[in-house]
Specification:
Length: 407
């Protein structure tokens, strides 16, 4: 039986020592602080947790707080029959070292930080208790720390139910100041329904942390694979940039994901990479009727098109006036207009352009064209499906005489 706060010790296993900590632990913590040389002038404030392990003597594991406000971890090897004690490890913990008041800060190497991993395990265990589920912790992806009335940790972690695929979750854990407790404030899957993410019925909504979301990554890889099969290409998936989702039909369980991804032309070293916009439909199907995924669209984004492009919204194209692809579309628009209307406009230059990812890409181009010595500004809309070598002029409107600022 444990006594004086000390657990029974088994050879080879680390046993937790529960508070109130015996004087022996306080003395060892003070010995470690005073013996270490890396952090001068430290003074022990309190012991936070402790454990011990029988290994040709006893090895003590102690986490402590010093007078500088930081937490430290130390390992002390004691061989009483030799009157010997040695500090094997003394290091400052990342927790408490990066957060600033009111502003969350990323914790470097969070995936291998033992304190972060412990908090993530705690979050999974608490979630299982609260929701009566059986998630198994698989690892930490990233974490941040924020100083509030204590420390607030936001942790992106991987977990899975037995036999199921690994999924990503975000946990918020609070370590209140002055008390040795952990509180799970929130635990949610990163991939939710559009409604859970706050979308108005039928409206697209951003998916948080999409580049780290395993389910979005799987959908992006699926899109690349399906495109390769259909078009006999050899694209190699690289990464997700951004993603949105919306209900296919308001109130349904079917969703359309708009994913901006990067892919390489081949698996060869140094192969050119390009950004693409993929639309993937996921449907809720009974078991045995397929996985419910359908690639609706897969569109290469033009060179110079911003990575911020997302399906459904117009995005300005930088340097449109010198972009060869945009100039070619503008010339095409003028030529098509001349054919349809029997005009003889002469293309002069591009003023600006923007794009919208739909079933293909809509380009709206402001351009200058002239006829009979009079230059005017026009707005043209061109619908492009590059993979089908398809483009169509959908509108061409005169804005007015060329203004001085456009010359």
């Amino acid at each position: 039986m444990a006594s004086n706060g000390v657990a029974d010790t088994v050879v080879g296993g680390i046993e937790t020592i529960s508070p109130p900590f015996p004087a022996e632990i306080e003395d060892l913590a003070r010995f470690a602080v005073e013996t270490q040389k890396e952090y001068p002038n430290l003074v022990l404030k309190e012991v936070i947790k402790a454990g011990k392990q029988v290994v040709s003597g006893i090895k003590y594991y102690i986490t402590l707080e010093a007078d500088d406000g930081n937490h430290y971890e130390t390992q002390i090897w004691v061989q009483e029959w030799l009157h010997k004690k040695e500090v094997l490890v003394f290091k400052r913990l990342l927790l408490g070292a990066y957060g600033s008041l009111g502003a969350p800060e990323d914790i470097p190497d969070a995936a291998t930080n033992l304190e972060v991993i412990e908090l993530a395990r705690f979050a999974v265990n608490e979630h299982n208790k609260q929701e009566k589920t059986n998630l198994e912790f698989k690892g930490v992806v990233k974490a941040s720390e924020q100083v509030v009335a204590g420390y607030l940790y936001r942790i992106v972690l991987k977990a899975a139910k037995p036999g199921d695929v690994c999924r990503f979750y975000e946990a918020k854990v609070l370590l209140p100041a002055g008390v040795h407790v952990k509180v799970l404030l929130d635990f949610k899957p990163l991939l939710q329904t559009a409604k859970q993410l706050g979308a108005i019925s039928g409206q697209a909504v951003d998916i948080p942390l999409a580049p780290f979301n395993e389910e979005i990554i799987h959908l992006a890889q699926f899109a690349v694979d399906q495109h390769n099969k259909k078009e006999h290409t050899t694209l190699v998936y690289k990464r997700v940039v951004k993603a949105t989702m919306r209900e296919q039909i308001p109130g349904s369980l079917n969703h359309i994901y708009h994913i901006i991804l990067e892919a390489a032309e081949s698996a060869l070293l140094g192969a050119h990479t390009r950004f693409y916009a993929a639309d993937v439909l996921t449907m809720f199907l009974p078991p045995g009727l397929g996985d419910g995924r359908v690639l609706l669209d897969f569109v290469p984004l033009l060179k110079g098109q911003t990575k911020k492009t997302l399906a459904g919204g117009f995005v300005d194209i930088p340097d449109a006036s010198t972009n060869k692809d945009i100039i070619a579309l503008a010339v095409f628009a003028v030529d098509e207009y001349n054919k349809e209307q029997g005009k003889h406009l002469e293309f002069k230059k591009v003023l600006s352009a923007k794009s919208q990812v739909v079933a293909g890409v809509n380009y709206v181009i402001n351009l200058v064209a002239g006829e009979d010595g009079q230059d005017s500004e026009y707005k043209a809309a061109v619908w492009v499906k590059e993979w089908e070598n398809f483009k169509k002029l959908t509108s061409f409107d005169r804005i007015g005489p060329l203004t001085t600022g456009a010359n």
